[in-house]
């Protein structure tokens, strides 16, 4: 009887391990529509891999992050993303990197990374940063003023922002826990979608007059 119980326990453990090992791969793009004809397949979840024996140092290298980005735009910021498209060796490693430049009083507008947590450090200037928790946690704003050398984390999927509150340019570097974390800038997505979202929907959602919604949509 004891032998039977022991074997049953082993069987249950083996089954649990098999379930734990059988999980879906993390998405690396917005979606991946199934296709039956391989000849028509254009994308994979990630990138095709080079033969490891053909890899070289340039596959893992990039220069130029010392060059400031152009912040002469409406939001006053520039994001230089270092992802798998710029460093092929990042493929499958689950990490990417960005340099963000901010004009005086510029901002990296509220946005979200659906596939990655971000850890950011300020190397020049002073930033006001924060993120908003999910509905179930009360949509609380968690924010902080960061100075040179300070570090802040933005959890995966949550809306967050950075704003330069100083009268001089600011620079930050950030790492993300995905080779393609994705970026959804809230205002662009809501008011600048193609085709536009029905203004009546946005007017009700944001408690705005329809003409204001239509004006905002024209700005994007």
TrEMBL record:
GO terms for cellular component: apoplast. Residues 63-214 form the Cupin type-1 domain. May play a role in plant defense. Probably has no oxalate oxidase activity even if the active site is conserved. Residues 1-22 form the signal peptide. Disulfide bonds join 32-49. The keyword Secreted applies. Oxalate binds at residues 108, 113, 118. The keyword Transcription does not apply. Gene3D superfamilies: Jelly Rolls. GO terms for molecular function: manganese ion binding. This is Germin-like protein. It comes from the Eukaryota. InterPro entries: Cupin_1, Germin, Germin_Mn-BS, RmlC-like_jellyroll, RmlC_Cupin_sf. Mn(2+) binds at residues 111, 113, 118, 160. Pfam families: Cupin_1 (PF00190). Belongs to the germin family. It is found in: Secreted, Extracellular space, Apoplast. Keywords: Apoplast, Disulfide bond, Glycoprotein, Manganese, Metal-binding, Secreted, Signal.
């Amino acid at each position: 009887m004891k032998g039977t119980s022991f074997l049953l326990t082993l069987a249950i453990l083996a089954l649990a391990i098999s379930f734990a090992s059988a999980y879906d791969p993390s998405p690396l793009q917005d979606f991946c529509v199934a296709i039956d004809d391989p000849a028509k397949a254009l994308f994979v979840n990630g990138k095709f891999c080079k033969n490891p024996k053909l890899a070289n140092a340039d596959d893992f290298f990039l220069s130029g992050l010392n060059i400031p980005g152009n912040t002469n735009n409406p939001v006053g910021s520039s994001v230089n993303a270092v992802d798998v498209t710029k460093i092929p060796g990042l493929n499958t490693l689950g990490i990417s990197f960005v340099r963000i430049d901010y004009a005086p009083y510029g901002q990296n507008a509220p946005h979200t990374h659906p596939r990655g947590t971000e850890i950011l450090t300020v190397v020049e200037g002073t930033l006001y940063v924060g993120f908003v928790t999910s509905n179930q946690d009360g949509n609380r704003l968690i924010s902080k003023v960061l100075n040179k050398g300070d570090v802040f984390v933005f959890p995966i999927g949550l809306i967050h922002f950075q704003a330069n509150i100083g009268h001089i340019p600011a620079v930050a570097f950030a790492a993300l826990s995905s080779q393609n974390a994705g970026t959804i800038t809230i205002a662009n997505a809501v008011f600048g979608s193609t085709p536009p979202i029905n203004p009546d929907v946005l007017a009700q959602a944001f408690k705005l007059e329809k003409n204001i919604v239509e004006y905002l949509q024209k700005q994007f």
